[in-house]
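# step 3/5: fold
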Amino acid sequence: MSDPILDIRGLEKTYKGGVKALDGVDLTIRRGEIFALLGPNGAGKTTLIGAVCGMVRPTGGVIEAFGKDLSRHWKSLRRDIGLVPQELSFDMFDKVIRQVRYSRGMFGCPADEDRIEEVLRSLSLWDKRDSSIRELSGGMKRRVMIAKALAHDPKLLFLDEPTAGVDVELRRDMWRQIDALRERGVTIILTTHYIEEAEEMADRVGVINKGRILLVDDKDAIMAKLGRTEAHFTFDAPLAGIPASLQSYSLHLEEGGTCLVYRGGDGTGKGKREVAEIAQIMTREGIAFTGIDTRESTLEDIFVDLLNEPEVQA
């Protein structure tokens, strides 16, 4: 693997009053990937982004970007780091194109009207370039925020809840734009409340809660290691108990014995195989079931399970 674009080691942030927002965070971001950081409100996502983008001063740890210590080389590295913050922040009475030009100039980049046009067109903002920002819809305002972040051509881009408050159509359009950025070689770190966003776009996923990283892995590897199968067998007549031949499986009865529920597997296909075995055993023994409903766990299921683990709540 090539050298990481971002390497965070032992990052700590304790606010006045003793609130620990980051608790020994270790995180390595690969060059050219889309990385989704998931966590509930107050988990430390925005604090982590703020520490890398210079808005939060850590109380411990090291951040290296592009192979250099960020605390020592901040001025030279900042131009290559872009941020689309969660909160909208710009002069609402200014024109779209002026705000994007200003953002490019603020990072010391030379004027480049062709690049400004390219950014605005890529976000379907060119026709709105002379509009006052206050006239735009919420979704279009968020696009302007992304345009401002892209104006100085960052190599590492943070998107903090980039599609919050936009409708599904605009959200999917933004996903396409983000994927296009990756094609240009931009490394993207996004935080999101929409688990489907991580499933759709991310190469790797990290889960943070109470300032600690609980898990980081390739999305597919997480599904393989932590995914589960759930199956519901239904019966017209209730079962008195789980048959002896099925005692070795992860089964329990619900709905007064009219529903036999299986939860198990490990994301490798074991769950599907065991569901098939259970069905074969019941058929062989003359236990008639009237229906079977099977589903595989989603990334959201895994995320919720991780947050609800006893050691996380301690």
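# step 4/5: annotate
Residues 228-296 form a domain with the Alpha-Beta Plaits fold (CATH 3.30.70).
# step 5/5: archive (pending)
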